[in-house]
Amino acid sequence: MPDPARPQPRPWRPRRTGRTTPRTVAGLVELVTAGPLPVRITAFDGSATGPEDSPVGLHVADRRALTYLLGAPGDLGLARAYVAGHLQPVGVTHGNPYPLLRALAEGLRLRRPALADLPDAVRALGLGTLRPIAPPPEEAPARWRRVAEGLRHSHRRDAAAISRHYDVSNTFYEYVLGPSMTYTCAVYTEPPAEVPAALTAAQEAKHALVFDKLGLQPGQRLLDVGCGWGAMVRHAARRGVRALGVTLSREQAEWARAAIVRDGLQDLAEVRYCDYRDVPEGGFDAVSSIGLSEHVGVANYPSYFTALHERVRPGGRLLNHSITRPTNDSDVRTEPFIDRYVFPDGELTGSGRMIVAMQDAGWDVRHSENLREHYALTLQGWCANLETHWDACVAEVGVGKARVWGLYMAACAVSFERDQIQLHQVLAVRPRDDGSADVPLRPWWTG
Question: pLDDT category, 395, cuts 50, 70, 90?
């Protein structure tokens, strides 16, 4: 009961702006969205909006979710609230929010509310909601604060960025990636009936495709830059090719070396903890770069493709396999969520811009193909693995880190499906001085 002896605050009433200003979380959601909501949204204040029969939804668990969302509108605020557990998926597991993200991508329409509505909306939810709070501990510093790690794409800063993502836990990656321990797009011949079960074979098919495009023969030499856990290196070595892999992840290098010994491939395979720029050898018959160029920086493409060009013999080949954008505009930086939580300093551009850089470095580009649907299937397999091993993954790396991986893999699967990002394999050759390229007249590989 209010104390009648104390002055009471005047009750708040919305301004007249043509519609009722929201007093609830659900009302705020309706204020910033247009058209029918594709999912059910509930909140800690008991309010709800969206279809009651929706199989998936979101629950705003407390005011900290609103603080994150209002403090960083867009994907970063959503990620902070989700990773910290204040924005909770309904009808799906934390390990695999793909169904929810797909529904939101297909049906959510945002709009900018009238400026006159905002002050009253904020007061209705509490002015304290705007008071900043620390982001989840899984978040990397903003780009400008990473200068302590060195200039962008310097040796030291690239090593720090790679370590942040890949030196998480080899055991965790074994749960998510499955037996292949391959963290790049697989290649499928048809949509699989069981996505996780088909993943290992599809990764083997990808390595076979790269091997065949490069035209490798027993006794030749392969340099695999950004080799991960060494799957491509071991694939080549099992076929009589001398293969050297380099990675900036210490944990990857240790795992790969142990796998090489386990498979009895020490005479043909080697993995080093090394920057691709520091490989002293040259004269390789081929170079494979599978998932590295996303990390080197678009401005560094000229030096990157030149360095690879210098390490192959005339007539040698390069297979560059990388995530790309559908366009070649100048905006190359990744979105805030990916940059802060997944791939610090990562950059993407269109395949056209990449091909131009390859040609300018002296490469004769022979073939390019887009495998984006294959990457969507690959990511669905990883999401399913994370969901299956959720408790073990949480025990290994913590619930926040596990949520980060589930969110980013599911979001990327949706983006590949909707042609918001792509995956290109580009095959090139270093021509001889007389212009000959030592390639057949027609494509020689299958798949």
Answer: very high
Q: What is the set of active-site residues?
A: 412
CA distance 384 to 176: 8
**3-state class of 321 per DSSP?**
strand
Percent of the chain with pLDDT over 90: 71
* E strand intervals along 344-417: 364-370
Per DSSP, which regions of 396-438 are E strands?
Answer: 422-429
- Among 50-64, 149-163, 342-356, which stretch is predicted with the lowest mean pLDDT? 149-163
Torsion of CA 380, 140, 137, 172, to 10 degrees: 40
CA distance 345 to 162: 10
Query: Measuring CA to CA, how many Å separate 184 from each of 187, 321, 381?
Result: 10, 9, 12
- Of 375, 66, 62, nearest in space to 202 by CA: 375
Beta partners for residue 425, in sequence order? 321, 369
Nearest residue to 314 via CA among 341, 284, 337, 339: 284
Instruction: List alpha helices for 126-213, DSSP H.
Output: 155-166, 170-177, 195-213
- 428, 317 in Cβ contact below 8 A? yes
* DSSP single-letter state for residue 154: S
CA distance 311 to 298: 20
Full-model pTM: 0.90
Q: Kindly list the structural domains of the chain, giving each domain's residue range(s) and its CATH number in brackets, ordered by start.
A: 25-130 (no CATH), 155-429 (3.40.50.150)
> What 3-state DSSP class applies to 313?
strand
The encoded tokens of residue 8 equal 């009471």
Please tell me the predicted confidence (pLDDT) of residue 163: 72
Q: In what order do the strands lie in the sheet with 221-225?
A: 269-273, 242-247, 221-225, 284-290, 312-324, 422-429, 364-370
Using alpha carbons only, how large is the chain's radius of gyration in Å?
A: 25
pLDDT at 223 over 70: yes
Q: Can you tell me which residue has the tokens 């022979």?
A: 366
Name the token pair of 261.
Answer: 């010994």
Residue 246, judged by CB atoms within 10 A of its CB (0-12, 13-18, 19+), counts as: buried
pLDDT value of residue 148:
67
Q: What is the pLDDT of residues 145-185, one digit of tens each?
A: 676 666 677 777 776 767 767 778 999 999 999 999 999 99
First to last CA, the chain: 75
